[in-house]
């Protein structure tokens, strides 16, 4: 048994671009349960836009911390499946992350160093042959099932340097002369626009502030959607603790034609 | 431990308007598993139309009874998140219900009295700060995890009066001079129209009957979809034991432009 | 207890045309957990096109083998619900299959014989009345819960002849004078076209080959999507080990207007 998983029931999460119409996610779960029948299986999402590694990394970043220590996160957005991109497994802050080494997993660890990383080679496995198109099932789910069943990372393959893992760089907001310039990084199911402007760089007090994005211009950050009248725009802090633009009881994305990548500015202490 | 949960594995269900493209539902499950790793987690649906409390209540009403006693149902359709609407947890017929006090949970108990209710205050919790937008994760999933781990309702916060819970009133069918007048309350995935006309108020026998809704006019209630030819309209009893209008192997909603709120009449013992 | 389930946690899978907007799948799971609370519940898919028995059978065929021996697969695409089509449960290669006897389950066993089959009659059950529209909940989930709780197939109802089960015939590719003629049997979430041309009937070597479908003409079977440039078409082996037509990082179905039933030919050893 690995020394890293706390005793108790293993938890395995799944994040893919597989959709839910085919049985791909189900097949992965069958493979995990074949090796670790006691696992709790949780879908993070299977609706990552096809091949969108950055979108997958962002979704992983929002979710993994809410799971118990020892959780095994399998993430597969894998346009390079079947090529020499490395299949990897790593350990970071007590969680396990398994997937292709294409930057997807860096949604969890960002530019920090993982504690341990291996290249998955599944030595000595007497498995069905590995498909050329579905490593989610034939490599990553197998690896997850092995960890869930108590294997060490080292049982999956040789150690690799944590520095060697592919990392995505996410756009960081710019702060120049009292103006924060960030961008919309995600439109959620409600049509709320999530930005990359973290709460920590925004003023806590009640001085004058102007938030602009497309046609939107707002003079304050409110406490809740219901702080304004239905149909009115507002800015507040998202569940990711970043600035969010929304409409009460409506879709801001639809109303104001907001989309990923749009510039958002916050002018602080602007004189009237 | 609470005396109300039967011994055995806790079951937690989820009903929200969060969709499944974001990781919101996954984050809630991570929070529950962090406190009660042995839980069985079941999605009722995450496709409630955004902010549609009544639709959420109706979906909850169809589903909760099919779960074992002691099941914990977390329901979140919460346009008032972050305002003074109360977060509540209650016990009714041996099940637990957790969510905002905006009428959503009354889908389960209707106009009956719950056995016990508390306002969730999570006293003494050393948690991450509660977000302003995602009480599903930061309040309701925490409460569900505590109950699943054996806490009493009283551990969540102070008792409140069962009479004080917000209730929705659902439209009831009218019966006047041999004519039942009800309405369509839901269009299901197949395009079947579910009405609020319960089987118990319809005649059991085989006397003449006329069912009308929009362009539909039917002279009998049949036993199964396949009682008519493919493509033909029919009326039968839904899995909720109410009158349902359907087309065999097709979508009645599409063909006849049926929608929620449309009037349905049943004329009984009409002379020819 | 049945002698066929390996000791350990029962696994129950679900494949339906119910969608995920209604609570139908959740209700089925509640019924299973009421009888076998320890079960692991896995969705294969609920997105089978309404009433499409053949599509359901195909999806079942792709998924069931990846689950551990003893798994209970509940499959419900059931246009004949409430009529005299038989509800059945059977055992095949150590797995259990439960659903209507309309050919759906033959996705798993094809034209081979199951080891044991019964007609579900649920003798002696003191259940809520069986609905006319939702045997997924009132018959099949009950049967699955009973098997998961350790019942024998014989506890569900009388034995029936394995030969009597309804089977679908799937289109088989034709091989004439060095030309294989098959068809597209499924378009997956990525817009890849899965054919019925199995790897085993294709040449392993590197001789000349021409693959044609609609506007597509390809001269080789490659090892991975990334073997060609982004946006280019390719043929490779699918995760079902059949010929698949795809576009790297794109949707072949959209670009080439591919759809189920289109003819695919493979010309082998054609002289240039």
Write structural notes for this entry.
The first copy, chain A, is an alpha+beta fold. Chain A is built from 5 helices and 14 strands. In chain A, helix 1 (24-35) packs parallel to helix 4 (135-148). Chain A is elongated. Chain A starts with 10 loop residues before the first strand and ends with a strand. The model of chain A is unreliable at 1-6 (pLDDT under 50). The interface between A and B is medium-sized, with 38 and 32 residues.
Quickly list its features.
homotrimer; 272 residues; alpha+beta; 8-stranded antiparallel sheet; 6-stranded mixed sheet; 17% helix; elongated; disordered N terminus
How many E-type strands of chain A?
14
- Approximately what portion of the residues of chain A adopt beta-strand conformation? 25-35%
Number of continuous helical runs of chain A: 5
Q: Report the average pLDDT across residues of chain A.
A: 91
Order of helices and strands of chain A: EHEHEEEHEHEEEEEEEHE
Strand count, sense and barrel status of the largest sheet of chain A are:
8 strands, antiparallel
The low-confidence parts of chain A are 1-6
* Oligomeric composition of the shown chains: homotrimer
Structural class of chain A: alpha+beta
Biggest interface and residues each? A-B, 38 and 32 residues
- Anisotropy-based shape of chain A: elongated
| CA distance, first residue to last residue of chain A | 64 Å
Gyration radius of chain A, rounded: 21 Å
Level of helix content of chain A?
Answer: 10-25%
